[in-house]
Amino acid sequence: xxxxAKPQDKANQKYETVIGLEVHAxxxxxxxxxCGCRVEFGAAPNTLTCPVSTGMPxxxxxxxxxxxxxxxxxxxxxxxxxxxxxxxxxxxxxxPDLPKGYQISQYELPICEHGHIDIEVEGATKRIGITRIxxxxxxxxxxxxxxxxxxxxxxxxxxxxxxIVSEPDMRTPEEAGAYMRKIRTIVRYLGVSDGxxxxxxxxxxxxxSIRPVGQVEFGTKVELKNINSFRFVExxxxxxxxxxxxxxxxxxxxxxxxxxxxxxxxxxxxxxxKEEAHDYRYFxxxxxxxxxxxxxxxxxxxxxxxxxxxVKRKRYLNDLEISEDAAAFISEERATAEWFEAAxxxxxxxKSVANWMMGELTxxxxxxxxxxxxxxxxxxxxxxxxxxxxxGKINARQGKTVFNSLYDRCKSMIEESPVKxxxxxxxxxxxxxxxxxTSRATSSVIREELGIKQSTDTGTIEKAVQEVLxxxxxxxxxxxxxxxxxxxxxxxxxxxxxRGEVDAKxxxxxxxxxxx
Amino acid sequence: MxxxxxxxxxxxxxLKKGETSPKELxxxxxxxxxxxxxxxxxxxTVTADEARAQLGNKTDGALSGIPLGIKDNMCTKGVRTxxxxxxxxxxxxxxxxxxxxxxxxxxxxxxGKLNMDEFAMGSSTEHSAFFRTCNPWxxxxxxxxxSGGSAAAVASDMCLGALGSDTGGSIRQPAAFCSVVGLxxxxxxxxxxxxxxxxxxxxxxxxxxxxxxxxxxLLNAICGHDPQDSTSAPEDMAGTPDFTKQIGRDIKGLRVxxxxxxxxxxxxxxVEKINRDAIKQLEALGAELVEVSLPHTDYAVPVYYIIxxxxxxxxxxxxxxxxYGFRAEGASDLMDMYMKSRSEGFxxxxxxxxxxxxxxxxxxxxxxxxxxxxxxxxxxxxxFHDAFKHVDVIASPTTPEAAFLAGxxxxxxxxxxxxxxxxxxxxxxxxxxxxxPCGFTKNGLPVGLQLIxxxxxxxxxLKAAHAYEQSTDWHTRxxxx
Lengths: 516, 481
Ligand SMILES: [Zn+2]
Known about the structure:
The complex is a heterodimer.
Chain A: H1 7-14, E1 15-26, H2 65-77, E2 81-82, E3 85-86, E4 89-92, E5 102-105, E6 112-121, E7 124-137, E8 141-144, E9 150-153, E10 160-166, H3 173-190, E11 202-212, E12 222-227, H4 230-249, E13 257-262, E14 267-273, E15 283-284, E16 291-292, H5 295-303, H6 309-320, H7 324-332, H8 334-345, H9 350-367, H10 379-390, H11 396-416, H12 426-434, H13 443-450, H14 458-471, H15 473-480, H16 486-497, H17 504-515
Helix pairs in contact in A: 3-4, 6-7, 7-8, 7-9, 8-10, 10-11, 11-13, 14-16, 14-17, 16-17
Chain B: H1 8-17, H2 22-40, E1 43-46, H3 48-54, E2 67-71, H4 98-105, E3 109-114, E4 134-135, E5 138-142, H5 148-155, E6 161-166, H6 172-178, E7 181-184, E8 204-209, H7 212-222, H8 235-238, E9 255-259, H9 269-284, E10 288-292, H10 300-315, H11 334-345, H12 348-361, H13 367-387, E11 393-397, H14 413-417, H15 424-429, E12 433-440, E13 446-453, H16 458-470
Helix pairs in contact in B: 5-6, 7-16, 10-12, 10-13
Bound molecules: zinc ion.
Residues 32, 35-37, 50, 52-53 of chain A line the site of zinc ion.
């Protein structure tokens, strides 16, 4: 133990934190879970409503089969048991954004139970249990006007949600963050949610308690409500651990309560005590018949599952031998993985493709706020470029220039075309869409146009090398005296003199030979 | 015979022959309403203009030109739907309930919306927030409820037929009190979409008519699967057969079960005698009487008064003053607005049931009340299932007594609740049941016979009811108004 350890670090060695998360994922269905209203973010208030979603007298809910399918798909991806018999329950409470006076949720018979996912923290893999996944309908939104008037927007009312409840298996804020990110990755892979935390399509509540190391019983738990960013998950939990530890250290007791995370002050504040907790009076919803899921349908859904990120990552490591970082980066998003796999399919050398993707390509995409789901350059074009470099037609530095021109050219060709990226595309669909539009932009066309080629004429190279050595006698002296770092300087000077049109490796070898 | 006295069947024939016109028929009924509804008080809203506008919309439908009344808990697009509650006094739905839409699609015409116990909670139509409907046979007496307006309007010839809804006897009990035919179909036979929910697992829409044949005609029109109601049965169960086809067939060899638990203490002696005579009449028509047992009958009322209020407490949560309906003035904050709006907007009986249901669902009480009640409900279902292994229909009195005096039971809810003692079980079990006129007490008050059938076997119920009806003249008697 270091003498400089901060007080909470010391305390944390006395106490163990127990964390369980309830993640609400908005499903990516076109319509609401119990009616035909469209699901859309950012529409004018109360335009996406109907008598069902506004809870008018006499209307009835009808389950959207897609929501059930998405829940089952998620459950299968998380190794859950799919309930052969499942049903909806009403969760009763009054709030202006809840037009029916109850939420339709699931209580004692959820659609999925007993699953798990694996997370990676500090190089180690940890398995986190999934207690259950159930379906429910979202509430609307209250808007408090500065004039003192409160307004209700029911556009979000009835949006299908999945609540994914974990076992209390996490022990650190980092594990909770990694879990949250993994949930996001999986639901995005499955196409069941866009996992967008900013727009509220992924929200989480955290249950946190601490206990002396070695104690088997859980401590009193505190629930943190409505955390809406990955950063806040870790921060809110870290604060809460600190707070609970200090209460116990001072001889106090943890009160079972619900707290809210205040993002501005980075603290948690009490929302309601256990005594004030709602009695939701759950009971089976008599308007919806129990769901009896056909095992054949479950198998169909299972057969349609995509290869999941963990499997991909391992395959990239073992079969394609790319680095751990690259495998993690590429497998995190399905679109990235598909783009990568398409490039490798076209004959791209996996390590080079990965390097380009993580480097120059990601830099350009980030600048343009794009992703691999709508990348202007399609995989085959990068593969051709990589081949041009490997075959010595151009050098790596020229490659960058060609790549950037290629990217710009493809981007403007797409902008001028009628092709528009749609959120439903996914990378493969987008590649298919833009392929004909950008067919005239290729590595070879750009090389020709820019007149970029690599000189292989050893005479020219030798002449340039000799000139550089002649101009820098001091450096030559120091190099001979053992200052190997100067090699970079000589190569740089030669490249400059030849405007980069020669192969750095050849230059390197020639200098070595001359000074050796 | 006056045009307003026609049965639906007779009116259809006259219209077909061109002996009267839809316009003539409609005006006759509107005049009849004008003349006597001030005494009976069956209508919350009379839709004369809408009815006139509806005429001729569809001239070749099964019900073209037939003016009907609708209980005021079925949503009618553009026409105020109040549930006889202050809470919805000015509520105009922007959608039509499936059952009524089917009537208009068949060419029927909406005469008006009929009074009821507030949110269908009651057995006398005294719990309407607006006024009490009077029994046409004795205006001092109640019509029964909650579909009292529908039964009274049909009994007094203010409409050719009506729709009611039945959660624990709300069609059959007022039909018995008013000497008309009331049919509660099998749960799932008629869509509940647009029916303002009281107790979702029990509510069912059904016809109230002057004759059994009319009942079959209206059931034909309103039944069938509705994709907007998950609890409506598939079309091959809900939409078949043609019920009028059973009308007129004989009942030789029909096995009629007589449940010993229904002829009990508390059953009025005169009503018992009239019902026993009616059952003997079935035997005389060729039916075979079989004594059956429904051993859990005693639990039906308590089970009902846990399940129905529980569902109601949740169904009525939406009336919170936020979006539509009544909102109290002068609330200081959100909680205050909820409390004031619901205190002022709901009547005493509705509040009583909301509180009962809220209590039964509360954590710590759920297992002892709601869950237990559901378990007993399963036993009651099984009682019927077992009995129907031996019989085709079950016959019993519809009510333990004839229509009581207004005000007689309003101060004693339990007494009021017991008036549904024979009808509640069919709702809990989901079976179809009909009440039809089977005689009058010495005081001239109507008495009803109830026939309960197997699930989705309304055909047999209607066949037996029709055979009985045609062998008597009770259905032809009219109240003096
Ligand atoms: Zn909708």
